Structure formats: C-alpha cells, structure tokens
Amino acid sequence: MQNKLQELTDRLYSEGLAKGKEEGERILAQAREEADRLVAEAQKEAERLVAEARSQAEALRKKAESDVITASKQALQASKKDIEGVVTMSATAPVKELCSDAAFMKEIISAVAARFDSESSQDLSLVLPEKLQGELEPWLRGSLAAKLKHGVEGKFSSRLAGGFKIGPADGSWYVDFSDETFTDLISSYLRPVTRKILFGE
Fold it and tell me: 27 and 59 in one domain?
C-alpha cells in the first residue's frame, strides 16, 4: 500500500511536472512569438519613421533649394533693373535740361504749333512751364503768333517742370510734350537696347 501511494505520488508529481513544463514551454513559445511580433512591429515603425523623416528632410531640402533659387533670380532681376534704370536715366537726363531750355523749347513749339495750325481750323492753346514765362511769353505773343494762321494763347503752370502741352483753345484736349512724357518715351526705346547691351537679353 505504501508502494502504491508512493507510485501514485510519483506519478502525479511526474505528470504535474510534465504538464507544468509543457505549459511553461507553451507560455515561453507564446512570449517569444509575441516578442518577435513586437520587435517586427517596432522595426517596421522605425523604418516608417526613418522613411518619413527622410522624405520630410528631402522636401525641406527641395523647398530651401527652390527658395534660394527664387531669391537669387529675384535679386538678379532687381539688380538688372537697377542697373538698367541708372543707365537709362543717365541717357535721358539731358532731356529734362533740354525741356527747360527756352531756345530749344521755342524750336520744338514752333514746329509742333505750325503742324497743328496747318491741320486745324481752331486757335491753339499752349500750357508752358511757369519758370520760363519771362522768356517764352513775349516770343509767344510776337514771333510765334505772327507765323500762325490762327490765334495762339499761352497759359503758364507751376505744375509743369519742363516741356509743354498743346491743343485747341477750347481746352477740350491736349497733347502732352512734357519732359516726363519725353523721358518715358525715350526710356521705353532705350530699355530694350540697354538690356541687350548689358545682359544679352
């Protein structure tokens, strides 16, 4: 009886030990599988984060490169425009002087007024720079008036720095020959030539 009890105890112990070992191995296998799964997931996530970081870094690099190129182009264009402006203004600077020179103004006004007078049956009106009134008013009333078939009147304006405006005496319209108009006109022709000479464009 004692032996049977011992056998039963040993058997129960062996079976329990075997079951415990089996259960332990199963749990260990599950733990390993779970660990492998977690490691694989962590590795995938790490790869995803690295790829995302690389993508963001590349996007930032491209944006920075694009911004630098755009800024460089804008700076170059601005510099070209400044250089072009300086050259054009240097070339047109004498225009302001000429448009403020009474002798030159008399020649231009005579030519333009004679043309207007021959093509129109109306009296003429001139708007002239106030600063040239002393030199131009006597000439306007005398010499110029004598050359024209129709009447001519002159108004002097402080708003006009140089040049003149001409039109019918009723003031319905004027053609602008001011220094600014001449400068703009000359500049519009000079700019493309200046660009070509300076920058080969």
Answer: yes
- CATH number of domain containing 171: 3.30.2320.30
Residue 127's H or E segment, with its range, is strand 124-129
Asked if 116 and 66 sit in the same domain, the reply is: no
User: CA 58, CA 51: separation in Å to the nearest integer?
Assistant: 10
Q: In this structure, is residue 86 part of a structural domain?
A: no
Sheet holding 152-157, edge to edge: 152-157, 124-129, 163-168, 175-178
CA 119 – CA 139 distance, rounded (Å):
22
Residues in the chain: 201
Helix axes 2-98, 179-199, angle to 10 degrees: 130
Q: What is the pLDDT of residue 49?
A: 82
* Cα distance between residue 148 and residue 110, in whole Å: 9
Q: What is the pLDDT of residues 172-192, one digit of tens each?
A: 888 888 877 777 766 776 667
Q: List the domain range (segments joined by +) for residue 122.
A: 95-199
- The predicted structure's pLDDT at residue 79: 54
Helical H segments across the chain, by residue range: 2-98, 102-119, 133-139, 145-147, 179-199
Same domain, 178 and 127: yes
pTM above threshold 0.70: no
What is the tally of structural domains in the chain?
A: 2
Between these two residues, 190 and 47, which has the higher pLDDT value? 47
Band of residue 138 on the pLDDT scale cut at 50, 70, 90 = very high
Residue type, 141: R
